[in-house]
Amino acid sequence: MAIDMEQFKVTYIEESLEGLDIMESSLLGLDSGTADNETINTIFRAAHSIKGGGATFGLSSVSEFTHSVETLLDQIRNEERTITSEIVALLLTSVDVIRDLLAAEQHNENIDEERIEAVKKQFDALLESDTTSPGQTSSQEIKAESNQEQNAWLIDFRPHPDMLATGNDVVRMFRELTELGKCDINVDTNNIPALEDLNIEDCSLSWIVTLYSTCTKQQVEEVFVWVEDDCDLIISPLTQNESESSIENFEAIKSEKGKTKEIGPELVTKPIDRRNSGDRRTPTKNKTESSSIRVDIDKIDALINMVGELVITQSMLSQMGEDLNIDRLEKLKDGLGQLERNTRELQESVMRIRMIPISFAFNRFPRMIHDMCSNFGKKVELKVSGESTELDKTVMEKIGDPLVHLVRNSMDHGIELPETRAKLGKPETGTLSLNAFHQGGNIVIEISDDGAGLNKEKIRKKAIENGLIDESEELPDSKIYELLFQPGFSTAEKVTDVSGRGVGMDVVKKNIQALGGVVEVSTVAGQGTTFSIRLPLTLAILDGQLIRVGEQTYIVPLISIIESLQIEKNSINSVAGKADLYKLRDEYIPVIRLYEAFDIQPDSRSLENGLLVVVEGDGHKAGLFVDDLLAQQQVVIKSLETNYKKVEGLSGATILGDGRVALIVDVAGVIRVSQHGSNQNINSIHDNGVAA
Amino acid sequence: MEAAQQIDVNSQVNAGVEDQGDQLLTFILAGEEYGVDILRVQEIKGWDTVTPIPNTPEHIRGVINLRGTIVPIIDLRMRFGLETIEYGATTVVIVLKVISNNKSRIMGIVVDGVSDVYNISKDAMKPPPDFGSVISIDFVSGLATVGETMVIVLDIDHLLNSEDMAVVESVGGEGA
To answer: Which residues of chain B make contact with A642, given a CB cutoff of 8 A?
Structure first.
């Protein structure tokens, strides 16, 4: 059979990763003390699917590891074990391990064997130990009893003829049974029909298995869980202590129980270790910019409807085109109007396919905050709102890290220790809220805490120390807070492993700017800080201002334009006869002649005859001298790099309504080039090349 | 995925070589006949206005919109340092698939006119002699003789490599 298992494997990994997310969030739910059966079952189901799939796809490391997890979960489910915070921590760690295993499989990387072994040991220890833990005597006795009595199971397994058609493999099930203990398997061939009646797709065999194991009935049933409805299954205990091997088994378990006492303390300390290493998964995860996307079926249906309408409009128009006369002009106009509407709707719904709810980015925070709370000894409650706000998948992937950083910052610097909070008369538990909403064509994400707020004086002092500002400089509050985003700035009193190394906030700002967004901070001393990030909904479309220089049309992103104005002769100041400065109210801004920067023929070289577009990029202001302002419109961004290479001063290209290509100006790049004159260098290299 | 596609492209190209030799599309440039592997040719279209890209070498004429894809257009005369002429009725743009650094790109070259399609067996291909003059030997994968005429077979992957295009190298200089 030449079925390409690889494609299913990819799906399996994706589904398992989703399953792990479910496990994680459910486990965190358990943590806050709401252990109901449904939650446990949810976790169990997820683990079971991961295990089953792992075995099917030959990922033995995954299935073996998950098996231990499943066993533990099963005990919890059967109320043989109560949930303690240690167990939850261990399960969370194991979620990380499975995630790593799957990631390693996805990227063909090596597995961190040591770590898996360590976690596995903890599991084994826990699984064997807990029956002796105090306060559990009743269930423990029952278990001990059952151990003594039922150390073997008689399994009568009679599959229905069509069982194999459902894709279940008897061999796999028996292999799983042998994992539980020694098996004697007897096959019953009585039902095999005569050769001429034999249907190769039917299963005519049945088996009687004697399983020598101290496992629970549940565990045996688990093996057959996929085929429950496709077979007659009778599992009955063998009560006689007939076989010696089973007694030996029991002895072995007993002696191991003794050992576990030593391992005990490790259980408590290890999870914290793991939590630190749990943080490691953030960088590894970043590599996984998954290339597939799950789309809501409604969106696809809407798209199909839209395409249907488009086809109808098209056929209407082509019919009209066959014998067109002046009388039908009105109808043609209507048809074209309809075509335009269809096209726009189609574009919108195609864009919507790329949109996913921001909960994908928010989901990691409950876990992160849970881990950090115990690391810092802080009490923090996370409030999330607007998690169904949608944004482009690419933006989502890139906003993850800046968000993590801002949340860490709030946890580390913002929210105070419980004692401090109590002294200040605040509730001991701090609140960190994540909020997302749409505003105009943007998405706004707010991260706010009710912590200490920013210390204006401390920031100022630090900035002076680091030489970012002069001692005499008086800055308005907003400017002071902006200093946070300067490179090499950190006010953390001590360097923690979470934040405070002085890298970060500038990177956060840079990343957000790279996405065409802005980040702002507002704070009230003693009451908290709010960071708000404003991002464009998508990277594929840009709000642009069309400008004209000579014969060429360029697009300047609207977000970087501050204002556009008619140049007044009196405000022009020339420096050394070369550079021009324009006096705008009480500021002097450098003038960049776009025709010079781009080396093209303008309508006019004299500043009075053109317009000045005041732009800001990378914190620098400049005035772009252009011939004319044209329309403002949304443009679809096309990369120049796909078929050519990155060009300094341009961020891409787009196709205008008439089919021509227009280039998109990278404002920050143009300012940089004009400041350092690197375009001059390019030109001179070019000249030399030709002249040499 | 992308890698797999490229392997596909390569094997296609190789298959062509093994079976019946190369099929070449030839074009005229300053009186000489040049050939490119026909499997790399996407389409041939007339010269149309382009959008110039600032701060790029002169031979990059600009970019065009090819059904929604932005495609750079290279003037081959300028690339070779030949005398430029007015674009006329026969001037065409040959759109090619170029593979460099395991990435395939679409680029267009402006030539004086297309000429013919030849089947060229492997034996008919001769290694290029050292020109030392008009064009660098790096861009020539061989010489093919078809009847009386000689066809210069270009190695377009080398010729249109983006690194080369960033800075005009000594090619133009040697000619001048």
So the answer is: 69-70, 105
* Residue A325 designated active-site: no
Report strand pairing: A231-237 vs A355-357: unpaired
Q: Which of A82, A99, A130 corresponds to the end of one domain?
A: A130
Which chain A residue is nearest to residue B160, measuring alpha carbons?
A644
Cβ-Cβ contacts under 8 Å, B56 against chain A: 647
- In the predicted model, what is the mean pLDDT of residues A422-446? 85
The whole-chain average pLDDT of chain A stands at: 76
B127 or B74, greater pLDDT: B74
Farthest CA pair distance, chain B = 45
**Is the sign of the CA dihedral A7, A8, A11, A13 positive or negative?**
negative
| Residue A77, Ramachandran bin (φ over 0: left; ψ between -120 and 50: alpha; else beta) | alpha
Q: Cα separation of B2 and B4, whole Å?
A: 5
Indicate if A550 and A530 belong to the same structural domain: no
**Shared-domain flag, residues A581 and A459:** no
Q: Which domain does A572 fall in, by range?
A: 541-687
Residue A551 included in any domain: yes
CA of B145, closest CA in chain A: separation in Å?
A: 33
Residues A485 and A579 in one domain: no
Q: Which residues of A touch B52 (CB under 8 A)?
A: 552, 600
pTM (2 decimals)?
A: 0.51
Query: 3-state DSSP call for residue B172?
Result: helix
For residues A530 and A382, state if they share a domain. Answer: yes
Tell me how many domains chain A contains.
5
Sheet holding A572-575, edge to edge: A561-566, A611-617, A620-626, A587-593, A579-584, A572-575
Alpha-carbon distance A638 to nearest alpha carbon in chain B (angstroms): 7
Edge-to-edge strand list for the sheet holding A541-549 = A628-636, A541-549, A552-557, A661-665, A650-655
The reply to whether A527 and A394 lie within a common domain is yes
- Alpha-carbon distance of A39 to A435, in angstroms, equals 26
Percent share of chain A, pLDDT over 90: 3
Residue A588 neighbours by CB distance under 10 Å = 12
Catalytic residue among A24, A70, A416, A446: A70
Asked if B53 and A640 come within 8 Å (Cβ–Cβ), the reply is yes
Q: Is B96 helix (H, G, I), strand (E, B) or coil?
A: strand
Instruction: Please name the member of B1, B70, B167 whose beta carbon is closest to the beta carbon of A643.
Output: B70
Residues 6+ apart with CB under 8 A from A318: none
Active site residue A370: no
| Cβ atoms of A140 and A28 closer than 8 Å | no
Residues A507 and A405 in one domain: yes
Q: Is A283 a domain residue?
A: no
Q: Are A549 and A509 members of one domain?
A: no
Is A67 among the catalytic positions? no
The one catalytic residue in A151, A409, A511, A679 is A409
Say which CATH number the domain at A406 has.
Answer: 3.30.565.10
Q: Within a domain: residue A388?
A: yes
Q: Is residue A384, in this structure, part of any structural domain at all?
A: yes
Q: What is the pLDDT of residues B148-161, one digit of tens each?
A: 888 888 888 877 77
ipTM value, please give it: 0.75
A557 and A612 both lie in a single domain: yes
Cβ contacts of A639 on chain B, cutoff 8 Å: 70
pLDDT tens-digit readout, A277-289:
333 333 333 444 4
